[in-house]
Design a protein that fits this description.
Layout lengths: L8 E4 L5 H12 L3 E6 L3 H13 L3 E6 L5 H14 L5 E4 L14 H22 L8 E5 L14 H21 L5 E7 L24 H12 L10 E4 L17
Parallel strand pairs: 1-2, 1-4, 2-3, 4-5, 5-6, 6-7
Helix pairs in contact: 1-6, 3-4, 4-5
Length: 254
């Protein structure tokens, strides 16, 4: 991979903490010039960038609320001004709220859709003039999305991610002739999840939740040359959890 001014550029939204931080650090270690994005966690973002620089990487910090179209576009404009290119865009930001639908506030529904679906849409649209053949967009989804509902749990979140999956496939079809690939990574349970069930391993054939390392490995593969012929795909990173959600395994028995 090229280094210095010729190195590819990557943006990971929501990369000041948790899984986003792990992904931006891995991209930096792989030779990307990275942008650490945050909305309110300024100190954490600065610390992540400083850590990357201390290891010899190239990192900058950018702030913006991607649920607001003007701020999402401003994030991309900062990258355009600095580099004039963007090789990898990872839409990681996601608002996660749970609760039964009959009591879910419309305002919270709207905020979730705006951040999780319209935010990536605005970012992708604004970034396209900076992307060239070989560039890659990766959206973060949710495991098991294609088969199960989530009544009383994360129905609104899943609605937003279902829309993002359709957006992923639609952009993949439109941008394929330009050599720009668009894919989704959909983790199931992650070991740093805020609501990780104590017994989740019993529902996962591989017997454990995903780690951030698992997600980073999938990301590096998807944006790398080994996956150059992969686009429009939803990579279920769930340790086989979705297998128990297949319609042919549903039973009418109580």
């Amino acid at each position: 991979m090229s280094t210095g001014a010729e190195a590819p550029v990557a943006l990971v939204t929501g990369s000041a903490k948790r899984t986003g931080r792990a992904m931006v650090e891995r991209l930096a270690a792989a030779g990307y010039r990275v942008w650490v994005h945050y909305r309110g966690s300024a100190k954490a973002a600065v610390d992540v960038a400083a850590g990357i620089k201390a290891c010899g990487g190239d990192a900058r910090v950018v702030q913006g609320d991607v649920s607001r179209a003007d701020e999402a576009r401003a994030v991309i404009d900062r990258i355009a001004e600095a580099h004039g290119r963007l090789d990898v865009l990872v839409n990681n930001v996601g608002i996660y709220r749970t609760g039964p639908l009959d009591g879910f506030a419309r305002e919270d529904f709207h905020e979730t859709l705006t951040a999780n679906l319209l935010g990536p849409f605005d970012l992708i649209q604004r970034a396209l003039p900076l992307m060239r053949a070989g560039s890659s967009i990766v959206n973060l989804g949710v495991g098991g999305l294609e088969f199960n509902g989530a009544a009383g749990k994360a129905a609104v979140y899943n609605c937003s991610k279902a829309g993002l999956l359709i957006l992923t496939r639609s952009f993949a079809e439109e941008l394929g002739p330009r050599g720009i690939r668009v894919n989704m990574i959909s983790p199931g349970h992650i070991d740093n999840s805020v609501d990780l069930p104590e017994d989740c391993a019993s529902d996962i054939p591989l017997g454990r939740p995903a780690t951030t390392g698992d997600i980073c490995n999938a990301l590096l593969w998807l944006v790398g040359p080994q996956a150059a012929y992969i686009t429009g795909q939803n990579l279920q990173l769930d340790g086989g959890m979705m297998l128990s959600l297949r319609p042919d395994r549903w039973s009418a028995e109580p």
